[in-house]
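G., before I forget:
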Amino acid sequence: MKILKILSAKLSAIIKFSSRPKIPRWLIGILFVGGLAGFIDSFYLTLEHYNGTAVRCFILKGCNKVLASSFSEIMGLPVALFGAAYYLLIFILIIAYIDTEKKILLNIISRLTVAGFIMSSWFLFVQLFIIKAVCTYCLFSAFISIILFILGLMIIKITDADSHWQKLKNTFKKIKKFIL
Amino acid sequence: MNENNFDNSDKKTKIGDKKDRSIFNRIFLWLSSFLIIILAVWGILKIAGSLSPNNESIENLPILEQDWIKGNKNSRVVLIEYSDFECPACAMYASIVNQIVKEFGDKIVLAYRHFPLKDKHKNAELAAYFTEAAGRQGKFWEMHDVIFEKQAEWAEKNNAEDLFIEYAKKLSLDVNLLNKDIDSEEIKNKVDNDFKSGISAKVNYTPTLFLNGKKISPESYEDFKNIISQAIGNN
């Protein structure tokens, strides 16, 4: 445990040293932690899917109904596997950003989190309205995805202040005009 | 390991000067991240491993109070069947299993547990509820037999419920009580719990038979007889 403390102290020192003033440190930190947490959650579900064992369901009751449903697989592979890969990718990308500070990495992350958010929303919909049972672990993943998505939007706003964010705002204005 | 080292290097070079990023820091960053991932994976493997049943024995899959059983409940030869009323293979196995129980009588005990594949079979869960309700009136196995016998009549039909009620009437069951019980929490939980226990036991198709906690796939009636005889001999 002491090793962990030393590790995290060193890591935060590196982050402090490396983060440009424009991108807030806490944003990088949450991306780091979020990617890790999402990975742990998804990897656990992937393992249990292959083991066939029931997960320890807490707070909610419908875990196994959801995890054993036909929606839990895509092309024969567990959904959780894709989730684990996604979160691991986010984690690796944010490490790479801390290392190199290349803006393009943040751009990739912000695009990925949009995809992650869309997928999470779909699975939330499936649970609530099709399976009519909710799995706690899936809910946690959805929660992480939403946070990462919001952070992704923040990144777009900060890094592309002149171009992409303005384009986004203009698109929204056009939609508004079209509706009204 | 303190932060003074970093402050000193701050003063020597411009802040944010990438070229002066020490190799040591970079290696440390990647190494520690890698370590964190490895730790997480190891931890999860441990947790997942501790939950899955390793040894297969009666102790891991015992008969429970709420199980519907046939045969001798004190027998050391325990046959547990996870089944789905709307699955054709299960209907076929139902008669085979019944035969086995008839043949071995008091030497074995059979338990039936629900494992309705809701996504594939739309009336499977309802059938399970009906047999449970019939069981509350003392006729679980009779209802079980009828429902399997007449599977072709009600499978995938929209009027399955009406058909089940007809079968119930023929068995002289109290239909009003039956209808009440169908909606009861108690019965829903029973079927749910059966299903969950199946998931724990790694059931992923129906029917799945467990003999003393171990999955068996008898290839013929003879084969089945032999497996059971052996188990009786060993216990």
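The CA atoms of residues 90 and 118 of chain B lie 15 Å apart. Confidence is low (pLDDT under 50) at residues 1-16 of chain B.

More on Monday.
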